[in-house]
């Protein structure tokens, strides 16, 4: 059985997903929808037998699709997911789920009335390093965590606008929040401070904060802090987390972990696996068989991460701690 896949979006993520899908046995990129026919046709030309569309409803009417990948900017979520739920078409949606909590809540409410298969692109969960991290942390008593996503501001117009991306913590650092939840459990309360230090003076129409620090109280009692910035010069980056336990200190980076204890330090350089392929394999296996056990992040779970990142924004705006609920 060949699975016929539709792609909504023609940006980098959509293209990468399509490239990986086109190399899989029994999978065909059947249709691609973009914001213009030109964009859709250009991308479709790279995938044999694929058809371009500039309207996602027309694509769904014209093609018999087994699943759809949603790779659109954060502010564009909503109608696409609701239409797919109405048509009972499984979907994998890229993070974040939106720029706020209202739209994802509407989608979740509809999903809870169905049994539709979903997956969300929190790809770090599929990395060997995160699985190793989860195992290492679970064998200890965790006390606190510090996480960070430090880098540059993407050269994308919508990313620089609060109403386009939701800001760095919602659009980008959400990956760190999700790893924290995956490894350490649910968040009870957040307190955030955001500021504009550099980018609003360097570039036009920048409304997102470029520095931020968030304190998180976990339901287990664990205390965490997550910081981010997008003011660093090109090539200067730092992404990772440090877990402090009663037995050791565990430093996690996407492709390695380092465990330090009283006997010394062990660095584990893990293989350069491709989590994008792994998440697609898990999703498509579920589409074929109905077995969703390999999907590590579905819409319901990803909604909990969205709750945390949106609570942080609310806290930063109001200047008070905010419960995650």
From TrEMBL:
Pfam families cross-referenced by the UniProt entry? GFO_IDH_MocA (PF01408), GFO_IDH_MocA_C3 (PF22725)
Q: Which residues form the Gfo/Idh/MocA-like oxidoreductase N-terminal domain?
A: 3-122
Q: Which GO terms describe its molecular function?
A: nucleotide binding
Which ranges does the record mark as transmembrane?
none
Which residues does the UniProt record annotate as the domain GFO/IDH/MocA-like oxidoreductase?
Answer: 131-236
PANTHER family in the record: D-GLUCOSIDE 3-DEHYDROGENASE, UDP-N-ACETYL-2-AMINO-2-DEOXY-D-GLUCURONATE OXIDASE
The name of this protein is: Dehydrogenases and related proteins-like
Q: Which organism is it from?
A: Halalkalibacter akibai (strain ATCC 43226 / DSM 21942 / CIP 109018 / JCM 9157 / 1139) (Bacillus akibai)
């Amino acid at each position: 059985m060949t699975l016929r896949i539709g792609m909504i979006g023609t940006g980098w993520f959509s293209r990468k997903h399509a490239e990986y899908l086109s190399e899989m046995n029994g999978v065909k990129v059947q249709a691609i929808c973009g914001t213009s026919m030109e964009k859709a046709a250009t991308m479709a030309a790279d995938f044999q037998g694929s058809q371009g569309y500039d309207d996602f409803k027309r694509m769904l009417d014209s093609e018999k699709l087994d699943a759809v990948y949603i790779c659109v900017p954060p502010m564009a979520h909503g109608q696409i997911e609701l239409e797919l739920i109405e048509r009972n078409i499984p979907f994998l949606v890229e993070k974040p789920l939106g720029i706020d909590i209202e739209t994802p809540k509407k989608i979740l409410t509809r999903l809870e009335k169905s049994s539709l298969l979903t997956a969300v692109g929190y790809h770090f969960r599929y990395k060997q390093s995160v699985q190793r991290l989860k195992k290492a942390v679970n064998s200890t008593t965790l006390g606190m965590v510090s996480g960070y996503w430090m880098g540059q501001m993407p050269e994308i117009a919508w990313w620089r606008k609060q109403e386009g991306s939701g800001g760095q913590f919602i659009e980008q650092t959400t990956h760190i929040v999700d790893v924290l939840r995956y490894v350490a459990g649910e968040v009870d309360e957040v307190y955030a401070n955001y500021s504009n230090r550099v980018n609003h003076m360097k570039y036009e129409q920048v409304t997102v904060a470029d520095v931020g620090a968030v304190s998180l109280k976990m339901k287990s009692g664990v205390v965490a802090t997550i910081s981010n910035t997008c003011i660093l010069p090109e090539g200067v980056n730092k992404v990772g987390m440090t877990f402090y336990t009663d037995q050791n200190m565990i430093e996690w980076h996407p492709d390695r972990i380092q465990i330090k204890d009283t006997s010394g330090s062990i660095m584990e350089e893990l293989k350069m696996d491709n989590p994008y392929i792994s998440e697609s394999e898990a999703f498509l296996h579920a589409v074929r068989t109905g077995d969703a056990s390999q999907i590590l992040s579905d819409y319901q779970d990803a909604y909990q991460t969205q709750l945390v990142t949106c609570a942080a924004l609310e806290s930063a705006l109001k200047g008070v701690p905010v419960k995650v609920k």
